[in-house]
Amino acid sequence: MSNDGPGAPSAPRHGSSLARRFGTRVARSNQLGVAIVTVVLIFGIGSQHSEFLRVKSLANIAQSASAFGIIALGMVFLMAMRELDLSVGGIYSLSLITAALVIRDGGVDPWVGGLIALVAGVLLGMLNGIAANFLKLPVLIISLAATSIYRGIGLIRTNATGVSTIQRAADNEKITSSFYDVLGGEYFGVPAIVYAFLLAAVVMSFVFRFTRFGFAIRAIGSNPQAAALSGYSVARLRVAATALVGAMAGLSAVMTLAFFEAADPNQGLGYEFLVIAAAIIGGTGLAGGRGSVGGAALGAIIISVIQAGLVQFGVNPNAGLLVTGTVILAAVALDSVIRRRQARAS
Predict the structure, then answer these.
(1) pLDDT tens for residues 226-259?
(2) pLDDT value at 88 more than 80
(3) What angle separates helix 234-260 from helix 212-222, to the nearest 10 degrees?
(4) Alpha carbons 316 and 19: distance in angstroms, whole number
(5) Is 204 part of any domain?
(6) Which of 267, 220, 206 is nearest to 78 (CA)?
């Protein structure tokens, strides 16, 4: 997708078509590059530590990537329209806590509790978009305040302690439900959240690339003024994009609750960093106009591979931040080079 985006209705269609094809080639080449790096890393680490290549080890890496990777899939849409949401960790945490509390204290069936978590994520995300429109501020600014608000609410509601959903608070009755077996179980040695991640990646990639909504998101990111003149409602689509990010955070919370059967107010700390990093590494630039859902999924995997690899080599866990930050810097630099070439070619 060209940075110029779809112009006014009189814009030449031929040039726009060329720009779209160029953008698609860039996205595919970026995904291929990230995929190759991921495979090289996995087998490079595995050559030194054979246990790293075991199914259980790879499944754990995929599970770790899925938890924040699901959210990264939604963040691609927001970043493609030149916005950022730094409250995704708070949305994830509060959605998780809300579901756990209604199950433990409210006597709600876990399946209903999971649905409540998903709805909570959507509403919290929408709230960010609505506030941004009302105050005429970027979502980034709103989310800086929102992340503290959402986490503060979670800490207050739980007294900063974990919430188990194994027994009901009123009568200590044991809670049994297929919710934990279906969404928290393993299939062929792989946790259910990994399958949810892969399915969400396929669906979201289709929406981003082939639907009117996805095209509108990219058009706004390419040129907001031209998109508005073409009939797109920037304000409405901003709310839709923040709601989508919230929905993904809620989905991740549902899968997490099903697996751990409990919630902790500190879960999701740092997710905003990992989510944005995964999107950037996967080829979604900060300048807007284009993105790659598949690339974001691969970005999440490569981050988890790096983190697991550091553990295998006995490196200080805190070095993970340094390595991830370096990878992000390299990805941003590469994106800048690609955009300069794209500008010269257009």
Answers:
(1) 888 888 899 999 999 999 999 999 999 999 999 9
(2) yes
(3) 120
(4) 45
(5) yes
(6) 220
Task: Render the burial of 284-297: b for 16+ CB within 10 Å, e for the rest.
Answer: bbeebbbbbbbbbb
CA-to-CA separations, 8 to 12, 81, 224, 255, in angstroms, rounded: 9, 18, 11, 43
54, 33 contact by CB (below 8 A) = no
Question: What is the tens place of the pLDDT at every residue in 34-83?
Answer: 788 888 889 998 888 888 889 999 999 999 999 999 999 999 999 999 99
> Could you tell me if residue 1 is inside a domain?
no
Nearest CA to 81 out of 138, 133, 29, 145 is that of 138
- Residue 26, Cβ neighbours under 10 Å: how many? 20
Q: What angle do CA 159, 164, 165 make, to 5 degrees?
A: 130
Name the residue range of residue 138's domain: 13-345
pTM above 0.85, yes or no: yes
CATH number of the domain that residue 288 is part of:
1.10.3470
Q: Would residue 241 count as lying in a domain? A: yes
Least confident of 132-146, 213-227, 325-339: 325-339
Q: How far apart are CA 94 and CA 106, in angstroms?
A: 16
In a domain, 212, yes or no: yes
Given the structure tokens 């990219």, which residue do they identify?
218
- What gap in Å lies between CA 96 and CA 120, rounded to an integer? 9
Grade residue 5 by pLDDT with cuts at 50, 70 and 90. very low
